Structure prediction request, 222 residues.
Amino acid sequence: MDDAFQHRKIKAGLSVLLTAYSNLYADDAVLPLGRLREWKRGSRRADVVVVTKCPETGVDFSGIKSRLRLCEGQELYFSMFEYDDILPVFEDAVSEKYTLERIKKTQAHILLVTGIVSPAHIAGYLKKHTANVESLSFPDHYNFRTKDFDRIKNRFKGMQHAVKLILTTEKDASRLLSDDSFPCELKPYVYALPVRVKIMKNKEIMFTEKIENYVRTNQTNG
Prediction:
């Protein structure tokens, strides 16, 4: 459950605490000085701690473990994002499909439209394929409105590159797809970037089994 670690009325049998690689709770402070909702010692309630959004290389695993100061019995995992090739959001409107490889060859101009906490990781990944990436960011869980679509349309029209696309997340794509007011002239150019979470250090099976064993042991009938 997202943002449920401080929900005291929920009696969790297995708590998995996520902390971003670029902003570890060990380096943060309680509101209003920082972003923590409770003191760092609250992390002791977690059964599992996952350091998320790690880079592919250069992670100081032992150093981070030392900084987090885990208690006995707490398990630590590291995760990173892996991206699949882009997919058209409005498939019926597309006459020719684009891929990440084609973006790289043409150095296409990308307008990254997101309604998530931090699109910087996605933008960094796209810049490995083309130097021409612009971001148009909205708040997390954002519900797009007509004026937002006009803003997207005007920004897209102002991009001068011969090859240009609008890229978004799968979560945001579902919002665009279900909104009848999304401009038809933009539909052929809108693509989603699928993302998967990968547990690092070859611990994917161990992490999955941890969750499955808990569910299997604690499942109820009826």
Remarks:
- The mean pLDDT is 93.
- The longest strand covers residues 75-83.
- Residues 204-218 form the longest helix (15 residues).
- The chain has two domains: 16-82+197-218, 85-193.
